[in-house]
């Protein structure tokens, strides 16, 4: 289960409940929203981004704190795929 709550203007707390529960502070700027969301909310972007990450690694391997675009450095397909996922979400 992925829970997302706003912790500040551009800061979000994402909790991943699995065998081990983890929390992650993620910075999402207005520019990030414009670039990735296709009109979706920051919450939707973060949930889908964490689904993407969890398909590739365990929640305990995800950094505790990071800026959202950092995902693309580890997974070059992230930007393309997250746009496709958000475009297809209802």
Describe the secondary structure blueprint for this structure.
Blueprint: E1 2-6, E2 11-16, E3 22-27, H1 30-36, H2 42-54, E4 65-67, H3 71-74, H4 78-88
Parallel strand pairs: 3-4
Antiparallel strand pairs: 1-2, 2-3
Which properties best describe this structure?
single chain, 90 residues, alpha+beta, four-stranded mixed beta sheet, 22% strand
Task: Write up this protein.
- By secondary structure, the protein is of the alpha+beta class.
- The protein has one domain.
- The protein is built from four helices and four strands; from the N terminus they run βββααβαα.
- The chain has a four-stranded mixed β-sheet with strand order 1-2-3-4, with helices on one face.
- Strand 2 and strand 3 form a beta hairpin.
- Helix 2 packs across helix 4.
- The longest helix is centred in the middle third of the chain and has 13 residues.
- The radius of gyration is 12 Å and the shape is globular.
Summarize the structure.
The protein is of the alpha+beta class.
């Amino acid at each position: 289960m992925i829970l997302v709550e706003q912790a500040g203007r551009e800061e979000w707390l994402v909790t991943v409940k699995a065998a081990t529960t983890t929390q992650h502070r993620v910075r999402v700027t207005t520019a990030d929203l414009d670039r990735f969301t296709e009109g979706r909310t920051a919450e939707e972007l973060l949930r889908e981004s964490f689904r993407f990450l969890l398909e590739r690694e365990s929640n305990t391997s995800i950094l505790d704190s990071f800026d959202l675009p950092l995902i693309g450095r580890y997974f070059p397909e992230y930007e393309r795929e997250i746009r496709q996922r958000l475009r297809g979400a209802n």
